[in-house]
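Encode chain A's predicted structure.
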Amino acid sequence: MPIGDPMRRIACLILPAFAALLGGPPAAAQVCTVSTAGTAFGVYDPFAAAPTDSVGSVTVQCQAAVAIGISYSVALGPGGSGNGAARLLRSGDSSLGYQLYSDAARTQVWGDGTGGGRAVSGLLLLTLGRLSLLNSLPVYGRIAARQNVAAGSYVDTIQVLLTY
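Encoded structure for chain A:
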């Protein structure tokens, strides 16, 4: 075939475009977000023999332009106490110790890798039929029993870090 043959010119244009498709998605082709539902403990009874438990959630949602597996990690900061091993709810000058866990048995402290706590990891597999998925992760909270505290509304703010 001569170099000026129209079929050869078309093949030269199609092959590089097809090769670009096989190269994988650009870095901006995936986006993940995080949302939360707080762990609300309700009324705490300082005379109760059992701890006060509650469940909140962290939801990870990822979208991609192509089918892809997206690995992610969710870390929970230490809160206002600055210590993930000894989180505190506060009301004025009073504080109430509590902890957040990644398991229902409340044995795995959910943290940021410091103070004995660790982040929670997962994988979302986005397929051609589902290019947007979410995963809701329960956050198990516990306030230890029999803490002597003043009446009040106790709060703490936890920073959530999503890495993907």
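Residues 27-163 form a domain with the Immunoglobulin-like fold (CATH 2.60.40.1090).
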